[in-house]
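agent> Task received from the user: take the single chain below, predict its 3D structure, and emit structure tokens. No templates, no multimer pairing.
agent> Plan: (1) validate residues, (2) run structure prediction, (3) serialize to tokens, (4) report one or two observations.
agent> Step 1 OK, no nonstandard residues flagged.
tool_call: predict_structure(input=
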Amino acid sequence: MYSVLIIDDESLSRQTIKKLITQNIPKCSTIYEADNAANSVEIIEKFSPDIIISDIWLGKTSGLDILEAITPASQIIVITGYRDFEYAQRSINLHVSSFLLKPLKPDELLDAVNGAIDNIDDERSRSNEFDRLNKMVSDNLPYIRQKVLLDMIYGLTDSSSNPDVYELDIKNFYFALCELKHSKMTDKSLRVLQMDTMRIFDNTTDFNFEYVLLDREKLVIIIKDITDSDSDDIVISACTELSTVLHKKYPELGISIGISSKGIDESNISEKYDECKRALFYTKDFAVSNIVLFSDINFDDRSYLFHQEMFRLKNSLMMAVDDNDLVAIQHYIKKIQKKALNCKESDLDFIHMFYKQIFFYLFNLRIDTSPNLEKCDDNSITNIEKMISECDDVQSLNEVLDMAIDNIFSHHDDISVSNSSKHVLSVIEYVSENYASPINLPDIAGYTNLSVEYICRLFKKETGKNIVDYINEVRINKAKAFLDSKSYKIYEVADMVGIQNTQYFSTMFKKYTGMTASEYAKRQ
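)
tool_result: status=success, residues=524
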């Protein structure tokens, strides 16, 4: 509903306008009247009418003077008997919605009032939408701040671009990168553990802090507003307390914390994140404590960068192994060996450990593709591990790794290149013979003498479809043949192709043929 104020010093004119609006626009349920400037100002200030219809002259006073003085948040319709550009111009400056000339035409007035109502509705709609969006932003601000902080951490946005918009005020801060590992927890449980970590940190300290969840095992605590001169010790003490409480509550939890040096403001965020990453890395390979402050690290950049590059190459190698890409595997092995030749003497123990990791990972791949080789190669595993341990230079290590790789892939090459079609044909043969019975992937893998993961990957690579889809297609094609014979009922056909649930059979049939089994059986 809408309220209207009619300002006119002639009573008959006011009554005419009021009657016209009341009879034709019932949404204007409240109509006020004023015949002078004082009454107009009082009503406007008290009731804030939605629409003001004002004569341009009230005796010797201009209606525009009143409206300019009040500047109401109303739709204004100005009525005048003068064709005066000055008044029209002033009306525009007042954002008048309509400027009408006397004598008033009823249709023009009603159109002007309806136009004012449309403007009010639009404004209310915009205001409601703004309120809705504002509430949505307010409700989601913690998630938005997480996204903004992540972008700042990874250098994806300019950290100086008005962080106040997101209520971020990061000054005099430390980054604490926490890695939480628990072998018995699911991804969901680890997320709960991360939130519990935040709760514990909040309960054991008086710090202002933000947090960012990086992945299922890592989170960043941004400790803010640290002004004490011994701030390093204070932050380490807080992180030590956090670690102690977590270990008591979760005895099997592995926790490491890398702490940056002190940052000044938001412009240091990406830099400080890199520092705490390096400190966390240091906890794993060099430090005695599980909590390390970057400022306390005493090792040169060459060692750090060398280790980082070796781990990066190992990750690429693992992806090549997962993709069963022998060319890529050999490529990354050569790159690792070449990079290892540039290591310092102090890194030799690291290379021993690193090469053993690679060997055991690749040997597990051999077992994955040829399970029957596991037992017969126990001695060769022990021998190669011993040979790696006894090498006293990288060149010898490379030679042993080459020998180990040749041994591992001597059978794998045959499977991947020469016999792949044979294994896929074995799957096809098995499905053809057993489609009327329950079929599972472990049975197929056992029939082909390969692991489930490997035979699925191989079948997909050669046929372009996964094994489950292929089984379903075989069953549906057999079902169509049985239905075409007109000799069997639908539930009998379902059972004949190894699907005991008739409803599921009909659903699957429609998925692969575009029609239900009943529709297919009834077709001519």
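agent> Step 4: summary for the user.
The longest helix spans residues 106-153.
agent> Done.
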